[in-house]
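TICKET: design request
STATUS: open
ATTACHED STRUCTURE:
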């Protein structure tokens, strides 16, 4: 653990069972039934969840806060700007395409260029959070021959892993073809909905990687059951998720603040979608891994600041990157949940986003979330 204080894991709603999913490559399974139509939360449900109405945020004045932490981070900001420019140039060279839904997939995240850019920045942010590593599992390079990256997104993890393991075949799957077309020869991308029964053959992969599948997975037990079946004996499966619960050790995240409201929006949205955001709070990764039969399961909790408020320069750098990653498309992360599920107008969502940014820029608000990495070995 990165801190003596660990995140609490209150009991949360159970995820509904989902039909078995796609894998590599046996006969295609029967198509899964379509998910129920999403209906916005009622006013009573919103009140019971403790979510303030959208109009609340349009009525609150926005006073700009000078970020005194800027002087503390100095060179971090210039390094960030330089690296961000490099990331965007890289993605521009490789281009992007967009695709509709496949299977039962219904993403709460957009796949337009602005969001793709945000996901690319997040790839660097996640690596920084893991100590400049792509994974934490104790992999032996000479034993890694075939790798699966589930929910690969823009594909940067798969590409970087392939560069680090040039003798391994790396397959990235996602519901949208937003990955670059020019990739290392040992990388390929496939369209796939991870919630359907995997059709990969048994004992196919030496490493299965699942990163930030929040609000994506219908049933975590099914995901790890599929991963266990498709992993080779001795192979590892690793999952990383973050909490949506903004905390502070000094009480600076106040009740009724924009950051205090954040988790309720995502938790209630996840319940309505049938794909939970309470993965960390309900300890779903470890429970599902144990259920599937994995051994040597390790859990690593990492305290992630939001913003450059920590005195420690490295933590300030991590906090700055998390803040920048989210702010690069904050509306994109919130629009679906706020508009479709809470019934907020575009103006109300934008006002809420403005209050979130204001609080992240306030050096007196010391907010953080927990990031959890869980990995296990197939015996």
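STATUS: resolved
RESOLUTION: sequence designed for all positions
ATTACHED SEQUENCE:
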């Amino acid at each position: 653990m990165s801190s003596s204080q660990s995140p609490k894991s209150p009991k949360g709603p159970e995820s509904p069972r989902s039909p078995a999913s796609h894998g590599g490559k046996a006969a295609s399974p029967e198509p899964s039934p379509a998910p129920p139509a999403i209906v916005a939360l009622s006013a009573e449900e919103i009140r019971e969840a403790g979510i303030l109405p959208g109009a609340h945020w349009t009525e609150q004045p926005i006073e700009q806060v000078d970020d005194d932490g800027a002087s503390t981070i100095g060179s971090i900001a210039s390094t960030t700007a330089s690296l961000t420019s490099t990331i965007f140039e890289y993605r521009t060279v490789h281009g992007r395409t967009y695709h509709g839904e496949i299977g039962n997939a219904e993403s709460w995240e957009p796949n337009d260029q602005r969001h793709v850019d945000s996901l690319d920045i997040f790839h660097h942010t996640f690596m920084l959070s893991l100590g400049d590593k792509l994974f934490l599992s104790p992999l032996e390079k000479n034993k890694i021959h075939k790798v699966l990256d589930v929910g690969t997104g823009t594909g940067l993890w798969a590409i970087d892993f392939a560069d680090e393991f040039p003798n391994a075949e790396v397959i990235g799957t996602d519901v949208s073809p937003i990955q670059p077309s020019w990739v290392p020869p040992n990388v390929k991308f496939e369209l796939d909905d991870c919630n359907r029964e995997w059709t990969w053959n048994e004992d196919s992969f030496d490493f299965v990687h699942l990163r930030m599948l929040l609000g994506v997975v219908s049933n975590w037990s099914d995901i790890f059951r599929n991963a266990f079946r498709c992993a080779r004996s001795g192979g590892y499966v690793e999952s990383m998720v973050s909490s949506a619960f903004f905390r502070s050790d000094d009480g600076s995240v106040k009740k009724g603040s924009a950051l205090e409201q954040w988790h309720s929006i995502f938790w209630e949205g996840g319940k309505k979608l049938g794909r939970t955001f309470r993965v960390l709070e309900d300890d779903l990764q470890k429970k599902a891994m144990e259920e599937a039969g994995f051994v040597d399961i390790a859990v690593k909790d990492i305290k992630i600041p939001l913003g450059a408020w920590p005195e420690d320069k490295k933590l300030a750098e991590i906090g700055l990157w998390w803040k920048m990653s989210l702010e690069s498309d904050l509306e994109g992360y919130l629009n679906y949940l706020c508009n479709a599920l809470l019934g907020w107008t575009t103006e109300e969502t934008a006002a809420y986003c403005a209050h979130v940014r204001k609080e992240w820029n306030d050096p007196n608000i010391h907010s953080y979330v927990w990031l959890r990495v869980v990995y296990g070995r197939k015996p």
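CLOSING REMARK: The two ends are 25 Å apart (CA to CA). The first strand starts at residue 146 and ends at 150.
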